[in-house]
Every structure is written in C-alpha cells, then in structure tokens.
Amino acid sequence: MPATVVVGTQWGDEGKGKFTDLVAKEMHMVVRYQGGHNAGHTLVVNGETFALQLVPSGILYDHITPVIGNGVVVDPRVLLEELDMLSSKGVDTSLLKVSGNAHLILPYHQEIDRVTERYLGKNKIGTTKRGIGPAYADKASRVGLRVQDLLDPKIFRQKLDVVVKEKNAILAKVYNQLPQSADDIAEQYLGECRERIEPMITDTVNLVHEALELDHHVLLEGAQATFLDLDHGTYPYVTSSNPVAGGACVGAGIGPRFITRVIGIAKAYVTRVGSGPFPTELFDEVGDLLVERGGEYGTNTGRRRRPGWFDAVMLRHAVRLNSLSEVALTKLDVLDTLDTVKVCVAYEIDGTRIEHLPYHQSDLHKAKPIYEQLPGWGEDLSEATERHHLPSRARDYIAFLEAQVGVPISLVGVGPGREQFLHFAA
Ligand code: IMP
C-alpha cells in the first residue's frame, strides 16, 4: 500500500517532471492531485520534448495508469488538445482516468482571471490566466461544475445557466465586459468534447484504493510548489490549491497513513514567475546567466522567470511543511561555469539574524539574505552518471546543501535528458 508524493519545494519550475518521470517508472499509477493546466512539466525522452500541462507524467509509460484526481481543475478543451498532441507523437493515452469530482474550468473562469488581474494593476498576482483561481473559487462557493456533470447534460445546463447569469452580472457591472453565452458554452462542452471525455470519467478514489489494496505503488504528482501553496505560500502571490504533500491526501482521496515517501524537488538555484517576495532574487549578470543557461522561460506562458540563489531557509521550511523524506536536486549543471556559488543560510531582518522563515509576510519582504560562499567547480557535469564522476567541489556543494536542509539529497539532475541524473545518497 505504499504511496509516494513528489512535491516542488520552491516556487515551481524546479524540474519536477524529470524526477516524477524517473520515479514513475517504478509505479503502477500516477495521480495528479491539484492545480490544472497552469502547470508545465517538460520531459525529454529519446531526444523528443514533451510539454505536459494537465496529464500526469506517467502517461509516457505503457504500464502506468495515469489519473487526474478530484483535486485538479480541468479545462476539457486543453485536456483533449494535450491528448491529441501525445497521440500524434505515438503515446498511448487510452488508460487515462479523470475523476468525476474534479471541477471544470469554463470560459468565464479564464475571462475573470484575465480581467481581475488587469483590475488589480500593479498589485496583480501574475497568474497564468488559465482560470485556475476563479475555478477553485467557484468550487469553494459551491457553484462549480464538475467533470461528472458532463454525464448529465440536463444538470450541466441547469447549473451553467445559474452560474453564467451571475458571472455576466459581474463581468458587465464590475469589469465592463461583454456577457458570455450559456448556449455557446453548452454547445461547445456537451458535444464532441463530452463524447470524448465520458469514457475517461471514473470514480478515481475507488480506483486508487483498489491499487493500494493490491500493494501497487502509487505516485501522487504535485504541480506548482510549496511556496505557491494557498495556505503555506507567500499569500496572496500563490496559486489557489494546496501543492504541499498534505494536499495529496485531499486531492487524491487517501489518508496520510498510505504515504511512505515524500520527495521534495529543489532546483540548485531558485526561480519564481509572477509577483511576490523573493529574498535571494538576483538582478545582475549572474541572474541573467542562470536564466539563459537554465532556459528559465515559462513552459506554459513563455514568461522570463525571476532568478536567485538557493535559499536554505525556504528549504528547511519546505522539509517541515511536507515531511520530506529526501530532496532531489535539479539543474546542478546550470551552475557549472560560475566561479563562486552562494547559498542563503539565514535572513537578516531589522538587524537580527533569523534562521527560519518569518511568520509575518512584511518581514519576508524586508529579509536580506545572509550567504555562505562556496567555490564553483568549473567543469561540465552533463555527462556525470555516478556520484564519483562529480568534481569534489560539486560534491561539497551538495553536501553543504544537505547539511543546511537536514534531509538527504538522493538524486541529482545534471541535464534535461531522461538519463542525465545520478543517485547521490551514500
Ligand atoms: P495561477 O496558478 O495561474 O492562479 O497563478 C498564481 C501564481 O502561481 C502566479 O505567480 C503563477 O506564476 C504561479 N504559478 C502557477 N503555476 C505555476 C507553475 O507551474 N510554475 C511556476 N509558477 C506557477
């Protein structure tokens, strides 16, 4: 009955797709438990790049049942486009299951996401404008439409009419926007879209438990990351779901006792997209180098990611929030050409050294990073496949991070390819 969680430990884009894919190899089932197509997981398999937004990474293995859990918000059009893209590349998508309890993202969610961001002006969140927040807001307000509503066109239409009426009043009166047509939405979603999605709609809670009862290995795949968590992230600059490991229980429908391993994915430096505090952010040529060498542009939106040094204060907090059993470090090779590598080990706030994440967000905004400096290794790591292939300075850097963070670093990524990693645990 073992379940493993893979969770991002920073602000997303840690390269979760790569290690999720690696761990998935050993699994029978991979379940996405939150978020929607705001995620962008890039996998490079046999030289071919796959950019997944909604479909679980396990889709690329024939032996895995990929599951979109109840905690996910699903834009059916995006789901079908992604499945068509995968099929055109020869990937078998027939095993995909979608929870009937997952909520739908409908066109008005995207419109509201777009106009509220504009309305917020300089206080905008910097969302992906995919309708994620408005869809989760409707879920919490109990006016959301769920995937299972596609099975009953009459109910779908009844719920849609009520909600579109309310959204149109808001769009017109608050945002001065044109109304949405319930007829158009119904036509779009209840036709071919419904026909294609219907066979995938499943009681995924039952499915996951049947797998666990058979002692099958289940991977719970997080999207976004710990510091984008609605409760634990840098609110309001967060996403509208719970990426932390606890969210996996809710979003897949299992209890915490099933989870035996929690792998936190951390990049060897940090990036963030959108607004919000970022103590180790770099505005200099080192930042530019991290962006260029790391290809730090959104898979999804193309936005340049904000770069910064590795922040051990954040990571220690992520260890606690997620009960991490280990960390998988990604993109170490991006640091190859640097003479010196810095790690933030504490913050200075109003003249006081603080070793943990401040509780008050205003303090985080004024936190100045206290760095330890380590020598760079000046060697190309991209061919390393064993721990002893790494130059000693790279090993020292990893050991330093391990000591700072307090849990083992088990895997280290040295390039985008499926094979470009090494097992690091002693
Ligand atoms: P939303 O999830 O589109 O509502 O965006 C809320 C915040 O989360 C914004 O700062 C986004 O840039 C960020 N975000 C959402 N998804 C991802 C992701 O997959 N990687 C990194 N940041 C993300």
Account of the 3D structure:
- The protein is of the alpha/beta class.
- It has helices at 16-24, 76-88, 107-120, 132-141, 153-173, 182-190, 192-197, 204-213, 245-252, 285-294, 312-322, 361-366, 392-405, and strands at residues 3-8, 29-32, 41-45, 48-52, 65-68, 73-74, 97-99, 103-104, 201-202, 218-221, 259-267, 270-272, 306-308, 310-311, 326-330, 340-349, 352-354, 368-375, 409-413, 421-423.
- It has a ten-stranded mixed beta sheet with strand order 9-7-5-2-10-1-11-15-19-20, with helices on both faces. Strands 14, 16, 17 and 18 form a four-stranded mixed beta sheet that branches. Strands 3-4 form a two-stranded antiparallel sheet.
- Inosinic acid is lined by residues 12-13, 38-40, 125-128, 130, 132-133, 223-224, 228, 237, 239-240, 273-274.
- % residues in beta strands: 15-25%
The coarse silhouette is globular
Total number of beta strands: 20
> Compute the gyration radius: what is it?
22 Å
- The portion of residues assigned to helices is 25-40%
Q: Catalogue the unreliable spans.
A: none
Overall residue-averaged pLDDT value: 95
Annotation field: number of helices: 13
For the largest beta-sheet, the strand count, sense and barrel status come to: 10 strands, mixed
In spatial order, strands of the major sheet run 9-7-5-2-10-1-11-15-19-20
What structural class do helix, strand and pairing data support?
alpha/beta
Distance between the termini: 27 Å
Which small-molecule species are bound to the chains here? Answer: inosinic acid
